Amino acid sequence: MNAILQAHALSKRYGQRQALVDCTLELPPGHVVGLVGPNGAGKTTLLKIACGMLAPTTGRIEVLGEQPNGAAVQLARVGYVAQGTPTYASLSVADHLKFGAKMNPAWDAKLAQARIEQLGLNPKQKAGKLSGGQRAQLALTVAVAKRPELLILDEPVASLDPLARRDFLRHLMESVAEHDTSVILSSHLVSDLERVCDYLVVLVSSHVRLAGETDDLLAQHHRIVCTRRQESDLPVGLKVISAEHTDRQSTFVVRSESELPAGDWSAERLELEDLVLTYLEWPVDHGAGSAGTPMQPTGEAQ
């Protein structure tokens, strides 16, 4: 298996609304993939298609080498925690573990029990009486204990306070490290993604705008400040992601897959949050003018 997820020209339409457009993406195994984008960008739609909960309108997708179709064998290989980390309010913690054991042939009862004890959850407590952080941890426990090859998490910490988020992410990384699970984590919180993710996908206006290993993307992007000039005056090979001008000064965010050439400017690398916000604020390829042919980032929709 060369990829945990491969999508080609994937699109999903709800009536007249296009939720996902021409999504072409390949995610390698062994990563914690951060999926980020504004509300309505198509993140949840993509994840539901990957889980077999939705069928694409056009295009194709493979998850763990198979087309997601809701079959028991496929479902057993993928753990999914939906947005809001849903649990059954009337069921106890122990009932959730019993249900997980019944539904998943590879269920790891020792792992589930150890996590519940580590978290200090009362097995007799109804899920509806748990705090938001405890419900999130219970949902994660059920997902991890099925021993999936791929764990998909859709905004699992969005409603949690900072301490609960930190605890959730710490337990997530412990499980990933121990069981060598690939993860796709959707979140609005870039600081959380920076803490745990080593691969980034930016989804904007239902299109994949950027995808690649986080360290590589950060190394390829720079902010340069110089005397006012046109994009066409920049060296060949730079892709301009954003451009801002005053009467005397120009500020560009550029991408270069080779070393940034020397120039009469000041240059600095972007932090992850700055990188993400740049692509969110400039949702359409800005183009590179005569500075060269725009590059297509790994996984970007064509």
TrEMBL record:
One of the record's GO molecular function terms:
ATP binding
For this protein, the record's InterPro entries field holds:
AAA+_ATPase (IPR003593), ABC_transporter-like_ATP-bd (IPR003439), ABC_Transporter_VariousFunc (IPR051782), P-loop_NTPase (IPR027417)
Q: Which PROSITE patterns match?
A: ABC_TRANSPORTER_2 (PS50893)
Please list the residue ranges annotated as the ABC transporter domain.
5-230
Name the domain of life this protein comes from: Bacteria
Record key words, sorted: ATP-binding, Nucleotide-binding, Transport
Please report the name of this protein according to its UniProt entry.
Answer: ABC transporter ATP-binding protein
